[in-house]
Amino acid sequence: MAENESGDVYTFGAEKPSGIGTLSLSSEDEMKETPQQYTQRILGYVDGKQPLEVQATTAEKLEHLVKDVPTTKLRERPAGDKWSVSEIVAHLGDAEIVTGFRMRLILGAPGAPIAAYDADSWVASGHYEKRDPRKSVEQFRVLREANLALLESLTPEQWKHYGMHSERGQEAIELIVRMAAGHDINHLQQIERILPAKRI
């Protein structure tokens, strides 16, 4: 049993699906899933929504969620193996680096391999628990704005360019954008469960 880039628990051999980013969900959301099941679940969050609109509003929602909440509270884990709000927003910032790199790699070399990553190891090695959550939100905002500006410049043909994800196979820019939006919603809801008084 392990966790994927979105932090969801899955079991299948020794592999783990690594997508946009990984964090531990609350126990109600933990599930055993394959990379394909993970993809479908994350995409389910954006059914009926415009992915670019979702992405454009995420930073503001994160700012609202952490506003006026003491840093000590944001660093508290809801359970020993679950990420804190501070770790979640740090993960989102680093996941945006990954997403931006993957899109630029694909645009420059269509069909390029896309490496998966273990977000839980990034939490530990990157000392997410020590990061200032408000600075993490600002990092996310700046990176997201840059990535959205890139997407706005693409031609229709470029949206179809794809890379080969090491666990999920072929992923076009269009799919990556939808996955990023679903990943946003997934983690915004996770933060709302940790801070129910801050629901958006």
CATH topology category name: Four Helix Bundle (Hemerythrin (Met), subunit A)
The number of strands is 5
Describe the main β-sheet briefly. Answer: 3 strands, mixed
Spatial shape: globular
Domains (count):
1
Report the end-to-end length measured between terminal Cα atoms: 32 Å
Largest sheet, spatial ordering of strands: 3-4-5
Mean pLDDT: 86
Gyration radius (Cα, Å) is 16 Å
Give the structural class: mainly alpha
Give the percentage of residues in beta strands: 5-15%
* Low-pLDDT regions: 7-30
CATH architectural type? Up-down Bundle
Question: SSE order in H/E notation?
Answer: EEHHHHEHHEEH
**Count of runs of 4 or more consecutive helical residues:** 7
What is the CATH superfamily classification? dinb family like domain
Describe the structure.
By secondary structure, the chain is mainly α. The protein has one domain: dinb family like domain (Four Helix Bundle (Hemerythrin (Met), subunit A)), CATH 1.20.120. Helix content is 52%, strand content 7%. The protein has helices at residues 35-44, 51-66, 71-74, 85-108, 119-125, 133-153, 173-194, and strands at 2-3, 9-10, 113-114, 162-165, 169-172. A 3-stranded mixed beta sheet has the order 3-4-5. It has a two-stranded antiparallel ribbon with strand order 1-2. Helix 1 packs across helix 7 (173-194), helix 2 packs parallel to helix 7 and helix 4 runs antiparallel to helix 7.
